[in-house]
Amino acid sequence: MRIITGKYKGRHFDIPRTFKARPTTDFAKENIFNVINGYQDWEETSALDLFAGTGSISLELLSRGCRQVISVEKDRDHARFISQCMEKIGADDHILIKGDVFRFLKSCHQKFDLIFADPPYALQELATIPDLIFQYDLLNEDGLLVFEHGKHNDFSTHPHFLEHRSYGSVNFTLFR
User: Which of 6, 82, 161, 168 could form a disulfide with 63 if both were Cys (CB 3.0 to 4.6 A apart)?
Assistant: First the structure.
């Protein structure tokens, strides 16, 4: 796993082979971040990374200069890996929440400029996540939700739908 651009550009982290998480491919990550660039001023951005997995997105967000990144990851080994990666880069503007995303969403009282959600594609509640984020009012005005999902999901009729991007088997829907 590597960081594509920013102050930590080129840093590599070896993901343990035992991990179940699949990090977003470099190709898809680079392309979706190019899209996000048109919507975000990184230095002013507070970001939330849901289903953080390997921490790839959180690391990329920090590298690009986000003022704060909160990562939520339930798996103990994955959370430990994310913590180790953050220690290696000396991140002091990162908070790791070890816990269930759905519980976190219910109890969160903070709003974010950017929320990136990459749930397991087979997650039964996957389609409910955008609705929950808007129901709990977690985005700032003009905030952006980037939702990674499989090809079988279509959110184009969602009231907050902004655009859809597809990079191979990786799909992103953006909401505002």
Answer: 6
Token pair, residue 69, equals 């990144």
Determine how β-strand 161-167 pairs with β-strand 170-175: antiparallel
Nearest in space to 55 (alpha carbons), one of 36, 38, 37, 77: 77
The reply to whether the predicted model has a pTM over 0.90 is yes
Indicate if the pLDDT at residue 146 is higher than 90: yes
Domain boundaries, the chain: 43-175
pLDDT per position as a tens digit, 8-63: 999 999 999 888 776 788 899 999 999 999 999 998 899 999 999 999 999 999 99
Burial zone of 72 (CB within 10 Å; 0-12 exposed, 13-18 middle, 19+ buried): buried
Q: Is the dihedral of CA 38, 41, 46, 51 positive or negative?
A: positive
Strands 139-149 and 170-175: antiparallel
Q: What is the CATH number of domain 43-175?
A: 3.40.50.150
Going from the C-alpha of 8 to that of each of 13, 68, 171, the distances in angstroms are 12, 16, 26
First-to-last C-alpha distance (Å) of the chain = 29
